[in-house]
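in:
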């Protein structure tokens, strides 16, 4: 089986041939997408109507992850809280002093449209981030600023478009220090990484293909660290779900040391079907860094295997994406190992269609 899977992952014709929605092309375009996304955000004319006391992103799935990236990145830099809302309704505190990004790649996600309407009623300072759809139409009618990003890819392949414009807006409002250098480094770093992760780079040198082999026929578990890679761990899980159509689970240090770690004793047979990846960053809290080795020691041989991916790059943006990018590629390779087309997410489409009938 190993030889077969190895052979498949290095067969570029087979890989590209089974990728009907060109997920590899979308992944490969991420460095350029980030630059374009930044420019689109910077092009918006914005001013605050009232002092901003909190920043919120409302969205779902691939569109909400952009909000989580903002929460992690801007959370350490802003004097006000950044939260993500994945619901039809908004928390009570939302009001005129809330800067609210209503984010939906399609512009048609009903939860986001409902939250948008509520934000309007509450007088929040809204910015819509979308490719079009009902969200854009409503925002334009309401005189709400819209950042229109290019369509044509899956929302989960559009993290650049769904995240970087929000940073640009915060910079323009004077809430974040200039980030132009960090964005340029991010794009350069991703360009270098895609050479290592692309289908043309053989398994022996390709970290994403190696991860996919380790996940194949197993249940992936991804562990990140609070405040740094936690959102990336969640992102890996979502990418395995949506691209490979397989289950995956995630958790964060140090919290998992207080519960999940205890749960690797029974049932032994099932535990041996799990494969754990730890996402690390030298910027993780020094005490958290000590926990990695101790945790691995305690785990012993309970699971099929454990691996670690270390963040690279200088700025926080490059470091965040240096952990996201291998997971994005690995999930597409995993899909292809399973003989699954990574692009279509028929289950989500069916569910949305059925709900629309009711
Ligand atoms: C599909 C995907 C989904 C969508 C979610 C919300 O690729 O990633 O998680 O992002 O169903 O849809 P949008 O982003 O259009 O609001």
């Amino acid at each position: 089986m190993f030889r077969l899977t190895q052979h498949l992952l290095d067969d570029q014709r087979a890989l590209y041939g089974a990728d009907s929605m060109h997920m590899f092309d979308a992944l490969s375009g991420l460095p350029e997408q980030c630059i374009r996304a930044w420019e689109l955000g910077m092009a918006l004319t914005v001013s605050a109507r009232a002092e901003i006391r909190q920043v919120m992103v409302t969205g779902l799935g691939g569109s909400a992850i952009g909000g989580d990236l903002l929460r992690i990145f801007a959370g350490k830099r802003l004097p006000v809280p950044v939260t993500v809302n994945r619901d039809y309704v908004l928390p009570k505190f939302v009001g005129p002093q809330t800067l609210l990004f209503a984010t939906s790649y399609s512009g048609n996600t009903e939860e986001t449209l409902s939250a948008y309407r509520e934000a309007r009623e509450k007088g929040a300072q809204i910015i819509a981030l979308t490719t079009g759809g009902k969200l854009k139409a409503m925002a334009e009618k309401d005189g709400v600023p819209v950042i229109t990003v290019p369509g044509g890819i899956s929302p989960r392949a559009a993290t650049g478009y769904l995240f970087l414009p929000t940073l640009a807006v915060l910079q323009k409002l004077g809430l974040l220090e200039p980030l132009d250098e960090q964005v340029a480094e991010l794009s350069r770093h991703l360009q270098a990484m895609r050479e290592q992760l692309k289908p043309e780079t053989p398994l022996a040198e390709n970290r994403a293909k190696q991860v996919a082999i380790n996940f194949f026929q197993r249940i992936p578990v991804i562990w990140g660290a609070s405040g740094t890679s936690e959102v990336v761990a969640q992102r890996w899980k979502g990418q395995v779900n949506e691209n490979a159509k397989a289950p995956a689970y995630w958790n964060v240090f140090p919290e998992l040391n207080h519960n999940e770690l205890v749960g690797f004793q029974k049932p032994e047979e099932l535990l041996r079907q799990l494969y754990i990846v730890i996402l690390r960053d030298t910027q993780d809290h020094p005490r958290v860094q000590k926990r990695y080795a101790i945790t691995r020691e305690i785990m012993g041989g309970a699971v099929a295997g454990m691996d670690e991916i270390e963040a690279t790059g200088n700025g926080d943006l490059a470091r965040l994406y240096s952990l996201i990018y291998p997971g994005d590629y690995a999930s597409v390779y995993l899909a292809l190992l399973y003989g699954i087309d990574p692009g279509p997410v028929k289950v989500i489409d069916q569910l949305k269609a059925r709900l629309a009938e009711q």
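note: Residues 59-63, 104-106, 109, 112, 154-156, 242, 345, 348 surround fructose -6-phosphate (CB under 6 Å).
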